[in-house]
Write the structure tokens for this entry.
Amino acid sequence: MSNKIQAIRGMEDILPEASPLWEQLEDACREVFRQYGYRNIRTPIVEPTALFIRGIGEVTDIVEKEMFTFDMPARSSTTRDRNGDSVSLRPEATAGIVRAAIEHNFLYNGPMRVWTAGPMFRYERPQKGRQRQFHQYDVEALGFEGPDVDAEQIVMLARLWKALGIGPIQLHVNSIGDAADRQAHRDKLIAYFSRHEALLDEDAKRRLHSNPLRILDSKNPAMQAMIEGAPRLLDHLGEGAARHFEETKRLLADAGVAFTVNPRLVRGMDYYNRTVFEWVTDRIGAQSTIAGGGRYDGLFAMLGGKPTPACGFGLGMERIILTMQAFGRTAAQEPHAFLVHAGEAASREAWRLAEAIRDAGLSCVLGAGGSFKSQMKKADASAAPFAIILGDDEVAAGKVTLKPLRGGGEQVLLSPAEAIARLATAP
């Protein structure tokens, strides 16, 4: 066939040369989360559509415009996964984790800290730092109500940026209060935006009475001045929410984490309450938020569980990779050695020697045949610091030739054990 099949628009391959930086990021995430007592959970990529409608909010951009939703095929079966139910590729991970916590009752013995990682899906315009399939690390503290957990998660992210060698990254925080605070604020917003209805775009007009808080999150430049003058929820917090926010800020200050209070920060899901936060950078263009989250004490009840406090955040992996690159971070995955072999006896011995090198905890690429010259070219292209050369003469003598490929140095004739020891101690 002449027509090549290509990847779906907005769903990109991560090629081998890019993977080492991803692995560096993933390793750092797992280690930092482990330090704070977070455990791994893995949830399905596909969930019932109702989970996101109830959890994220029916009149959010994510649910209205961005979800990949389809009906399960109806078949002659009584099983509930074959009755034509609507399902969606997950656009975020929090709702699925809360669903799993309710379904399996895994908070029975007390609060739990968990994290997950994997692809998420949103049907939006592909752009730098945002694809239709994108990757997140998602971190949740379930069953914790105190501001210390809000602060802990933010401090944990500050530790992650340090581990990755990136920064400064700016922290924006806000409180969107409790349900009563938001209802009173909602009434004020409706009144305010109604007085300025002529300035509202179609999305804003549609949300005026259903979800006016989302108007604050509009990116329409023509509306920004008007939005800036809207009533601020932060100025009308109830006593409990105000006290929670003040304590969160105090803990951040005590930890030496600088922040800016951003009264317009609301986040894109309806399940948030009290603390919300974002980490942003000016190094990667318009898609500047690399991590964000907050408290969502009402989500368990919204999804049919017992009222349970919770707090969490998501990391945008693509955006963090871009940020790492912007700060000059690189990563490579070169083997410790490339094993060049020529001759029948040498080829047989090369297999045993390669496994001995790997038994020592080192990496080794075994030449796949060809001339000595072509294998040496491949050894150099592999970025390995050493070539181990094995010919029939070396086999007969019980030796190998260790040849430095980087930074100069003379090749030396060594026993296999000596060569492995040299590889193990090389810088």
User: Anything to note?
Assistant: The chain has a mean pLDDT of 88. The first strand starts at residue 39 and ends at 40. The first helix runs from residue 19 to 35.
